[in-house]
């Protein structure tokens, strides 16, 4: 048998987030970022997280737009923790163009973007709670970068692998990414075999029993 090769975050490109979620479930890891959706149908991304923490601007103070885009390494996914705020935005068309020029893989926002039409025209993958026109200037400010951030019930750490598609956004902790990838491939094989049996006329219940579908889903930390 040939040696197992794990090519890093690139390995998760094109793998459905549902399959990744099933794999993480077997390790007792949630990973899902609840409520975040693609700005446009068909968008997808996979890459290491570059995290940003935002906070409200105190009353009576001012704050300019966050300056961070020039520091994000090529091939990364920008993850912005804006506390689920939807009364202002932290991303627009200029940041999108800068991100594409820098070779970033996409952006995930626990909050809103703006300039939705312009962003859609670029094809740049963006996932957020929605879009809203109000600027974040003087409303929120960049508090920290490359620190652990919490989105919903999930902690995202710098370098964790972020994957997203039409089903949502999920985070694979970097310290279990290789094991998760192995489990993903096992699940893909199992589901392919179930599908083949279904196409050959086998009832769903029988196919699931044959390939230990439910037992597999209950595996934890193995």
UniProtKB/TrEMBL annotation:
Binding annotation for substrate: 92-95, 114
EC number: 4.1.1.112, 4.1.3.17
Annotated protein name in UniProt: Putative 4-hydroxy-4-methyl-2-oxoglutarate aldolase
Swiss-Prot/TrEMBL cofactor(s): Mg(2+); a divalent metal cation
Function of the molecule: Catalyzes the aldol cleavage of 4-hydroxy-4-methyl-2-oxoglutarate (HMG) into 2 molecules of pyruvate. Also contains a secondary oxaloacetate (OAA) decarboxylase activity due to the common pyruvate enolate transition state formed following C-C bond cleavage in the retro-aldol and decarboxylation reactions.
SUPFAM superfamilies, A to Z: RraA-like (SSF89562)
Self-association state and partner proteins as the record states: Homotrimer.
Residues in coiled coil: none
GO molecular function: 4-hydroxy-4-methyl-2-oxoglutarate aldolase activity; metal ion binding; oxaloacetate decarboxylase activity
Top enzyme class: lyase
Reaction catalysed by this enzyme: oxaloacetate + H(+) = pyruvate + CO2; 4-hydroxy-4-methyl-2-oxoglutarate = 2 pyruvate
Residues bound to Mg(2+): 115
Keyword Aminoacyl-tRNA synthetase appears in the UniProt entry: no
Family assignment from sequence similarity: Belongs to the class II aldolase/RraA-like family.
Pfam families, sorted: RraA-like (PF03737)
InterPro entries referenced in this protein's UniProt entry, alphabetically: RraA/RraA-like, RraA/RraA-like_sf
Key words of the record: Magnesium, Metal-binding
